[in-house]
Every structure is written in structure tokens, then in C-alpha cells.
Amino acid sequence: MKAIVADEVVGRARSGDQNAFRTLVEAYSRDVFRLAFRITRNEQDAEDTVQETFIRAYQKLDGFEARANFGTWLYRITANSAIDQLRRKKRHEDRSVPLDEVTAGGVGPGQERAVFGRQVRERVESALVSLSELERAAFVLRHFEELSLAEIGATLDITVSATKQAIFRAVRKLRVTLAKIPRTAP
User: Fold this and answer.
1) How far apart are the first and last CA of the chain?
2) pTM, full prediction
3) N or C: which end of the chain has fewer CB within 10 A?
4) Structure confidence by residue, pLDDT tens digits, 44-103
5) Whole-angstrom Cα distance, residue 18 to residue 122?
6) Domain range list for the chain
7) Whole-angstrom Cα distance, residue 44 to residue 83?
């Protein structure tokens, strides 16, 4: 959705037009889910975050300043909702995820490569989970969503300097964790 169209639709939604808000949900739900999933690393948590994001956005639509970018505003709500989701989950359950068991018999080269790929993905996911909520959100916004440092700072409500520090810490931690992974498949 182009910014000019989004501005017009946001204006109608702010005036109480529920169809306009539905249009915004349809236009942004995929991006919101993608960001939520990259922060939470769990499909159900991401879906819960999407719902929470749009509920919060609807409730706070009157507070949205039209001079701001609606997408950035919505990303900020999404990141905060995802971080809140992670904190709630951390308080209420063990974050360990059972790993798939690999059968012992008849493993061929293609299966070895698949097992290696799964192990790498599990290590990367484990490494992302080991980051603080702020570090993970900043890293995801920078390296997956490709936002600028200023956009990330605005989304997370932190300074550009704090944004740089969060990304730096995340990259440093990920390098240490991922350095243990062999460079090539067996």
C-alpha cells in the first residue's frame, strides 16, 4: 500500500470507518506476522502477537500522528507486543523445544545434508533465543526487515546510539554462538 493511499485509509479509520481499518489489517498483516515471527521464533506466539498488535493499534489509532509513517508506527507496536509475548512466555513456561529425532537406519547423502541443515537452523534459532528481547528485535529489524538505524530507533523507542549498541551486542553474541557450527555439510 502506497503511503499516500495509506494516509487516506488511516484518516478514514481514525474517523471510525471499520472497513478502512480492515483494509489496513489486510495490507499490513503479512508484514506484521513476519516481524512477530522473527522476534518470537514461534508461529503461535507470532499469531497471538499479530492479534494483539492490531487490537492495540485500533485502540490507539486516535493517538497516531498523521505526520508519522503508519508502517513504522505499526512495527513499533508489533515489536513491543512480541517482546511482551516473550516476557509472558518466559515467566510461564520452559522455553526448551524438543528436537526432532533422526532415525538411525539407511541415512544417505541427501538425508545427511537435510539433517545438517536442520541442525544449523536449530543452532541459529537457539542463538536468536539467547539474545535479549531488545537485541533480538533490533537485529531482526536491521538484518531481516532491512530498516535503517533511525527507523529501528523509532520503532523500539530508543536512540540511534542505543540501536547501534543493541545490534552490535546481538551480532557479537551470534558470532560466538554460531562459530561452533562447521562450515560445510558432512
Assistant:
1) 45
2) 0.68
3) C
4) 999 999 999 999 999 999 888 877 789 889 999 999 999 988 888 877 654 444 444 333
5) 41
6) 1-94, 108-186
7) 14
**CA 153 → CA 86, 99, 128, distances in Å?**
20, 35, 20
Q: How far apart, in whole angstroms, are the C-alpha atoms of residue 145 and residue 141?
A: 5
* Three-state DSSP state, 101: coil
pLDDT category of residue 4 using cuts at 50, 70 and 90: low
Distances in Å between the Cα of 18 and the Cα atoms of 15, 23, 90, 94, 107 are 9, 9, 35, 39, 55
Highest mean pLDDT among 3-17, 78-92, 129-143, 155-169: 155-169
Q: Determine the residue type at 75.
A: Y
Q: At what angle do helices 133-143 and 149-156 cross, to 10 degrees?
A: 140
Topology of the domain covering 1-94: Rna Polymerase Sigma Factor; Chain: A (1.10.1740)
Integer Cα distance of 31 and 33 in angstroms:
5
Our CA angle for 103, 116, 185, nearest 5°, is: 130
Kindly list the distances between the CA atom of residue 143 and the CA atoms of 43, 61, 100, 168, in Å, as whole numbers in the listed order.
20, 29, 28, 12
Burial class from Cβ neighbours inside 10 Å (0-12, 13-18, 19+) for residue 85 reads buried
**Fold entry, domain 108-186:** Arc Repressor Mutant, subunit A (1.10.10)
Amino acid sitting at position 60: K
